[in-house]
Amino acid sequence: MVGPTSRRALLSALTGVPVAALAAPAASPWAEALAKLHDQYANQPPALARTKAGRNLSRFRYHNAEGFFLGIEKGIVRHPTDRLYQIGIVLQLGLSSHLLDVGFADAWCARHIGLNVARSLAHANATGLGFKTTDMELLAAILSPYSKWRNASSRDVAPDFPFSAEELQMLTRALLDRVHQVTGHPRPRGWQHRLP
Q1: What is the 3-state secondary structure (H, E, C) of the chain?
Q2: Is the pLDDT of residue 15 over 70?
Q3: Confidence band, pLDDT 50/70/90 cuts, at residue 73
Q4: How far does CA 48 lie from the centroid of its chain?
Q5: Residue pair 58/183 in contact by the 8 Å Cβ criterion
Q6: Is residue 144 part of a domain?
Q7: Residue 176 phi, psi (nearest 5)
Q8: 157 in a domain, yes or no?
């Protein structure tokens, strides 16, 4: 069985294509998966175009995700709803880093994805992130939109909430590590010194 084309393989293949051929729009290997999402969410299809500005913004978002995650890793964010809100921010920053890197426009993401972590995860996986886990899909659904956790009380967290604080941290770290791996963005300065 052949798996989906990786983003890295696609971009490597483009380096050998004559410039004249690049002028004609190429079919995206993700077109079918994205078409299903656009039907599901009734979105306007994006025009994916990788740019230097998009790559720079992607790196900025990844570094911001790592920065926001620091409070969670250090145990500073303890209140359950504050933790969920912060994790929502981290996941959305990490996922948008991937989306920007593969060519989504930031304005398209703001309009069609917004603060919905589940939509962001679905679009990222449809474009080569490769982070499909039942736990992450459940967490993304619970968090979406993550703004609902900003002023929530502890009573808003169900007694049977399926993740411990440690599991939330492990899932978030795993997603950030995957974004780092797939985008190739360097870790932020001082990252090694932040680890426990």
Answers
A1: CCCCCCHHHHHHHHCCCCHHHHHCCCCCCCHHHHHHHHHHHCCCCCCCCCCHHHHHHHHHHHHHHHHHHHHHHCCCCCCHHHHHHHHHHHHHHHHHHHHHHHCCCHHHHHHHCCCCHHHHHHHHHHCCCCCCCHHHHHHHHHHCCHHHHCCCCHHHCCCCCCCCHHHHHHHHHHHHHHHHHHHCCCCCCCHHHHCC
A2: no
A3: confident
A4: 16
A5: yes
A6: yes
A7: -60, -40
A8: yes
* Count of structural domains, the chain: 1
Question: What does pTM read for this prediction?
Answer: 0.81
Name the token pair of 180: 């780092």
Domain assignment of residue 55, yes or no: yes
Contact 139, 133 (CB under 8 A): no
Which residue range is the domain that position 156 belongs to? 48-184
Mean pLDDT of the chain: 83
Any domain includes 5: no
